[in-house]
Design brief:
heterodimer, A: mainly alpha, Cytochrome Bc1 Complex, Chain D, domain 2, two-stranded antiparallel ribbon, two-stranded antiparallel sheet, 6 helices, 51% helix, globular, B: mainly alpha, 48% helix
């Protein structure tokens, strides 16, 4: 029993079972289902998604960087409203990636704002991997 | 006996009121979190309830931005907005001016396009509005330093790169 508890404790300490990991696993499953050759998420692809510019929902060139800046450990600013946005990196802001409902909400919204479509499971996983490891 | 009844009634009323207040506070928190992360959480009294109804139905295209919420949060916020709207009984006189200036057959989505708002801001030069610290008339807090507390008094106006505003 004691052993089980120790293992459980270790898992929690190591971050296993964090809600965001469960969500990313479900994205990975979805990706694998869509394409059997899927090998896993990639922060480099995530960075590309995050930094590249597109004609967004407002009809002007925009990227994630437009509001979140290039440095995810710094606060950003909504380019349309000037409202300050707290840092995206969980290393700088422990609230980030802690609430899956919130993560899903913003991924859907911001993919639509920048790409005018919802992201695929691979794209979402890649960009989350980039943010998580920043 | 009568005395106890009165005490009991008063106690029930107090509990009821504080429960209601607590509930209202939680809802306001949801509103602040969900709507206030991109822009100031505008006081619901600024628009009539029909405007909020229309707004919350079209969050997938909220001024060309996707602001969709899950169905539950949408419902909670809509109820908060409409029950505190400018055309509701509880609306304070000053605040309701904005909403009351709207013609009955109109359903504006921009507070900044209501006749009262336009009247109040007509003397503001474009260069004050278009500068990067302000960007648009929707950015209340850029100049109204106490806007989030619901105070738009002239004494609390401070325009970036200009200073106090006097009519």
């Amino acid at each position: 029993m004691k052993k089980v508890l120790t293992v459980l404790g270790l898992m929690v300490t190591l971050g296993f079972g964090a809600p965001i990991d469960g969500y990313m696993q479900s994205l990975a499953n979805e990706a694998k289902k869509a394409d059997a050759s899927f090998k896993g998420f990639d922060a480099v692809r995530g960075k590309q998604i995050f930094t590249s510019e597109h004609i967004g929902k407002k009809g002007q060139n925009i990227s994630c960087v437009s509001c979140h800046t290039n440095d995810l450990k710094q606060a950003g600013k909504n380019t349309f409203t000037t409202k300050v946005i707290d840092p995206l990196s969980p290393k700088a802001n422990k609230e980030r990636l802690s609430d899956v409902k919130n993560v899903e909400k913003w991924l859907k919204r911001n993919f639509n704002d920048v790409y005018k479509r919802e992201g695929t499971a691979v794209e979402k996983g890649d960009v989350l991997t980039y943010i998580k490891n920043y | 006996m009568k005395k106890y009844l009165i005490i009991a009634t008063v106690a029930t009323l107090i509990t009821g009121v504080s429960l209601f207040a607590a509930d209202n506070k939680t809802v306001e928190k949801v509103y602040q979190k969900e709507c206030g992360s991109c822009h100031m959480a505008y006081q619901p009294q600024f628009l009539p309830s029909r405007s909020w109804n229309k707004m919350m139905k079209n969050l997938d295209n909220h001024f060309d931005v996707d602001a969709t919420l899950d169905a539950n949060d949408n419902k909670t916020i809509l109820a908060y907005l409409t029950s505190n709207a400018g055309d509701m009984k509880g609306a304070t006189k000053h605040f309701a001016k904005m909403s009351n200036s709207v013609a009955n057959n109109e359903t504006p989505l921009r507070i900044s396009q209501t006749p009262y708002f336009l009247r109040e801001h007509r003397g503001v030069p474009k260069r004050f509005i278009e500068q990067k610290e302000v960007k648009s008339l929707a950015n209340c807090t850029a100049c109204h330093t106490t806007a989030t507390q619901g105070s738009y008094s002239e004494r609390a106006i401070k325009i970036p790169n200009y200073g106090r505003w006097e009519d």
